[in-house]
Write a structure and sequence with these properties.
single chain; 119 residues; alpha+beta; Aspartate Aminotransferase, domain 1; six-stranded antiparallel beta sheet; 36% helix
């Protein structure tokens, strides 16, 4: 999955926006204003920091060499995933879905209701 496929998949989800709050090369993808994916556009390899359930994060790190503790993030709740490794696109999409869902479940009730109304 390349950066354009990544962005396209992220934007297929409800309530998604992107911005560059830190600098001109660090892309943050958000749902209802909360980050669920971060990537550096200036990196040699395309990798993405994704939110993850702590137990599942450890399981993924043991199972896939492409999954490492979150770079510059909480190692408990974030993984850095190499999108140029041997993981198939279905698995990468699953990890994006999981990250999105992890953030959605932390939204305030009003935000979740607003999100559910987006077509």
């Amino acid at each position: 999955m390349d950066i354009e496929q990544f962005r396209e998949y992220c934007f297929s989800k409800k309530g998604v926006t992107e911005d560059f709050p830190f600098d001109e090369v660090t892309l943050c993808v958000r749902v209802m204003g909360k980050i669920f994916a971060i990537t550096g556009l200036d990196r040699e390899r395309f990798s993405v920091n994704l939110k993850c359930d702590p137990d599942y994060a450890l399981e993924l790190r043991e199972q896939y060499p492409e999954v490492q503790p979150g770079w510059h993030m909480s190692k408990k709740h974030w993984n850095t995933v190499n999108f140029e490794g041997s993981m198939d696109e279905r698995t990468l999409r699953h990890l994006l879905d999981h990250s999105y869902d992890q953030v959605v479940k932390t939204l305030k009730k009003a935000q979740r209701e607003e999100l559910s109304k987006i077509a």
